Structures are given as C-alpha cells and as structure tokens.
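Need residues for this backbone.
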C-alpha cells in the first residue's frame, strides 16, 4: 500500500505531476502499455489469463481539491480561489503549501478580538500570508495560477485508523496500484489513473474513450458522516443518515448525481462479496458524483459500478479511514476481477 506517499504528495486538479510520478514508479514492473494521455491521465494494461473474458477498466482519480493563486495584494498577501468543492468556513487559520516548491503559508482571518460582528466566511475575503512584506517580494516567489494544497501529513491514529489529506481519491489510486501488483487476473485489467475529476470528470471521459472497455469499476473515497450531529439538541429524535460508516467495509453506490449504477453489476458485486465473506454497505445518500458519471456514457455506453472506501471529513484538510476497510475493499475488487464474465453483463437484472 502506497497510500502514505500518495496522500502526502500534492496534486491539485490540473497539476497532478507529483502523484503521477509515484504511480508510474509503482506500476512500471507490473503492467504494460503504460501511457500518459494528452490531459495527463495514466493508463496501463495488465493482460488477462483467459480468452473471451470482458475487458475491465478500473479507474481512480489522481487529483485533489485545493486552491489556486489569482493575484497578489500590495502588502504581499495572496488572493486565491478554490479548485473543486470546498467549504469556505473551514479555511481561516489553515496551513497551506503554495506552488511547486511547497512554499509554506497560512490562510489569514481577522482575530476574534476584532471580528465580533463578522460571522460569514467567504473565500473572497480571505488571503494567504507567505511572509512577504510587499507585492514584489511575493511575486518573486509565486505567480497567478500556482496551485495551493493543504499542509497535512499522513499519520496513524487510534485503533487501525489513519489520517491524511486527499483520501478522495488517493485511496482509490493506492487500491488500484495494489490491484495491478496483485495480478494477473482472468480478465484484461485496464487501469486508468485519471486527472481533473474534481472539476468535471474530464480525465475519465478521455481515458474511457481511449481504452474502450466492456465494463468499468470506479474506485473512490466517499463521505462517512457516521458521527452524531454536533449541532443537534440532546433530545433531537432525527435519525442520523451516515451515508456510510467506518468499519462497515466497501461502499457500493446505487445512484448518485452523476449516474445510476448498472443493476447487473451491483447484483454481481453483492453476490461476490457474500460469497467471499466480505462485509459491504450501501451509499445511502445521493450527493456527489464520480468518474463513473463520464465513463458510463462513453463509447455508446459502458456498464459501470462504483466501489468506495468510507472516509470521514473528505474535501477538508484531514480525513480518516480504517485499514480493515481498505483490506476488504481490495479483496472485493480482486474477487470481482476473478469472477466476472460476459454472462455477468448479459444476464437480465436480478
């Protein structure tokens, strides 16, 4: 598992270079036909051992949410905007890394002593302090267009739990690397480490058109909102809908904002998990989307399913996940690759 290295690497959408380098090093001894397409996605093939099996695309996106420098004020502070979906309220006071060199900075906010009447946080009112005293000093270090990432390091915490940034979707990338290293499989495994998912599923569309698979599996990190609502009153009777839970195993999507999962594939994954004794759960809320939204409509339509890792606090400076969930998810993906046949796709929905 190279999740630690992938999580610590910086790869905000459109600037996935450091992540791509790690992945290329990890998969080169295990796959063939390794290519970098025009957008920057990495595709590779692990040849199958059986003829007549479907060609299976397995996709995970390399990019993470973050920010981009948009300008420099006269006092040397940086103006910036978000790249991908982020909540402005979590930003004040955060440490960040700016540009290719990882220049340290801090998102500033008016101290509470002078901020009693300002309750709404908007990114346009925030700035990043990199220690420059004027515009020229800052301009010598950064430029508009430079990406900005959270300054977070991977670490072990608690019982079987790890924390880090960008688990959406570096955990999928780590799983896909492990899948390639654990082959071969009866099917041709067509790997796609995609770019620019967080800003519109762009890399996945190009990769799917290039690989032209018979079926696709998308590996993701998804929201585990499995803790009590801190804003709820003690006697609040509202049921908590956690979307999914840490420790519950891989998460199977039924539907999200970008797609409805192929019912035959969903039934196949349920049956495969049950046959292998692998715990699994369903994604119970319809928010968000994945690369599956682009893949399932490519090439006249591609049967597609999504297998996710439950992660707390995604799209924030730090996320949590469990190692046992990781192991169960990897087992399910590998079992699916060993069991899937063309009959899986042609049988009517059960």
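Answer:
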């Amino acid at each position: 598992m190279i999740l630690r290295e992938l999580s610590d690497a910086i790869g905000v959408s459109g600037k996935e270079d450091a992540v791509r380098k790690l992945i290329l090093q990890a998969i080169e001894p295990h796959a063939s036909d390794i290519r970098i397409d025009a957008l920057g996605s990495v595709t590779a093939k692990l040849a199958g051992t059986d003829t007549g099996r479907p060609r299976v695309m397995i996709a995970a996106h390399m990019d993470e949410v973050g920010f981009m420098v948009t300008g420099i004020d006269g006092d040397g502070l940086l103006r910036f905007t978000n790249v991908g979906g982020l909540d402005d309220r979590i930003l004040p006071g955060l440490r960040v890394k700016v540009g290719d060199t990882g220049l340290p900075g801090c998102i500033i906010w008016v101290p509470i002593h002078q901020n009693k009447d300002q309750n709404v946080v908007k990114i346009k009112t925030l700035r990043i302090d990199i220690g420059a005293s004027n515009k020229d000093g800052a301009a010598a270090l950064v430029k508009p267009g430079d990406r900005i990432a959270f300054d977070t390091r991977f670490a072990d915490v608690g019982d079987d739990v790890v924390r880090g940034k960008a688990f959406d979707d570096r955990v999928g990338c780590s799983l896909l690397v492990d899948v390639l290293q654990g082959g071969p499989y009866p099917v041709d495994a067509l790997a796609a480490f995609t770019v620019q998912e967080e800003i519109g599923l762009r890399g996945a569309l190009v990769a799917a058109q290039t690989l032209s698979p018979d079926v696709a599996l998308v590996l993701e990190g998804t929201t585990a909102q499995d803790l009590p609502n801190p804003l709820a009153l003690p006697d609040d009777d509202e049921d908590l809908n956690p979307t999914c839970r840490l420790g519950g195993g891989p998460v199977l999507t039924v539907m999200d904002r970008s797609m409805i999962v192929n019912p035959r594939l969903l039934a196949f994954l349920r049956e495969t998990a049950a046959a292998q004794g692998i715990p699994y759960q369903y994604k119970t809320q319809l928010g968000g989307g994945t690369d599956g939204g682009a893949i399932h409509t490519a090439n006249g339509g591609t049967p597609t399913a999504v297998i996710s890792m439950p992660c707390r606090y995604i799209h924030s400076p730090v996320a949590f996940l469990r190692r046992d969930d990781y192991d169960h998810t990897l087992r399910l993906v590998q079992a699916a690759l060993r069991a899937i046949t063309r009959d899986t796709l042609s049988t009517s929905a059960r």
